[in-house]
Specification:
Elements: E1 4-9, H1 41-52, H2 62-77, E2 82-88, H3 94-99, E3 105-112, H4 115-118, E4 127-130, E5 143-149, H5 158-168, E6 169-180, H6 186-200, H7 213-222, E7 226-239, H8 242-252, H9 266-280, E8 289-301
Parallel strand pairs: 2-3, 2-5, 3-4, 5-6
Antiparallel strand pairs: 1-7, 6-8, 7-8
Helix pairs in contact: 6-9
């Protein structure tokens, strides 16, 4: 039985400024003109199509359903209505199903990069569009809200995608999305790295690289968003062993799709499972092993004259305001 527990935490990424220090070089993302690709997009589309075509595919949707509910809680916190919304990377329409329960959004357009995946989407009454996230087939200023539920972490050119989202948003429109953070599946990453190094004398990329919070906030600011807000939640799911973790990742369509990946040998996998259990499992094998998922939530607004402006430095008086000697 899978037990999901989550603890909400706030992290003021947007208020952090990283200072240059000795031998410190900040990680820079590739620009939209770069030809370097981290992920094999064709392979990832095939993996997602294969996962969606399974008869029991709904069994593996528990993470997306949980995160979609968290996204809609954040939509409810915004005290306004959104006449038109775009579900970016809709998949099987999990967000569209939940949006039927709210009156804040009037019409939803579902966008997906695979036509086959849309065949398993039961919400055919919504407008569906197939295309590429890096070149959205919509006119400028088309949507009041863009929602993204755990799909942007597979983008090779995330800065370009964020700029495209901003282009299709109306002035004072909102981007609200969730992506996997850097600490996602750190248990699986460490176990595979240790086992592969010990058995094969080296290691490859077995868990996809994830973005950090301060990097995501920088990308949003650089793309031209205003009033950027970030926070995160941690979901911990317990599994019988490492192999059930990998099985569920494959069922979600979240298995490895990095470039130049290699097949793991059987003895390396067995060693990794033992390391996983020894490092992160409980005292009894019946307790299983945990798998952590760090979810970064981002909110960014397309600039508009009606938005509140930040105060100038020194505009707020310091100390107590004492009047009439009281």
């Amino acid at each position: 039985m899978m037990i999901v527990k989550y603890t909400a935490k706030f992290s003021p990424f947007c208020m952090c400024q990283w200072k240059n220090s000795l031998n410190f070089k900040p990680l820079r993302w590739a620009s939209s003109k770069s030809t370097m690709n981290i992920f094999d997009k064709k392979t990832k589309i095939l993996q997602r199509e294969r996962a969606a075509s399974q008869e029991d595919s709904n069994v593996y949707d528990y993470l997306k359903v949980e995160v979609a509910k968290m996204l809609l809680d954040r939509v409810a916190d915004v005290k306004r209505t959104f006449p038109s919304a775009l579900d970016l990377g809709c998949g099987k329409g999990i967000i569209s199903e939940l949006l039927c329960e709210t009156d804040a959004i009037h019409h939803v357009t579902q966008f997906e990069n695979s036509e086959k995946i849309l065949q398993y989407n039961p919400h055919t009454d919504s407008t569906t569009v197939v295309g590429d996230e890096e070149a959205l087939p919509f006119q400028d200023n088309s949507f009041d809200l863009v929602l993204s539920n755990l799909n942007l972490h597979w983008e090779n050119r995330l800065p370009q995608v964020l700029k495209e989202i901003k282009r299709v948003l109306k002035p004072d429109g909102c981007l609200l999305g969730a992506v996997y953070g850097m600490d996602t599946l750190f248990e699986l990453r460490c176990a595979l790295q240790l086992a592969e190094t010990e058995r094969e004398g080296g290691m490859g990329v077995r868990v996809s690289p994830m973005i950090q919070g301060h990097q995501l906030s920088s990308l949003l600011f650089n793309a031209g968003y205003s009033m950027v807000t970030l926070d995160y939640d941690e979901l911990v799911v317990r599994y019988p062993s490492m192999f059930e973790v990998m099985r569920d990742l494959q069922g979600m369509g979240e298995n490895n799709a990095t470039q130049h990946r290699r097949i793991l040998h059987r003895d390396t996998l067995l060693a990794a499972s033992s390391i996983y259990q020894a490092m992160y499992g409980g005292e009894n094998y019946e307790d299983g092993v945990p798998a952590s998922f760090q979810i970064l939530f981002m909110i960014g607004w397309k600039p508009d004259k009606s938005q509140p402006k930040p105060l100038k430095p020194g505009a707020v008086p310091k100390g107590f305001n004492v009047k009439d000697g009281n």
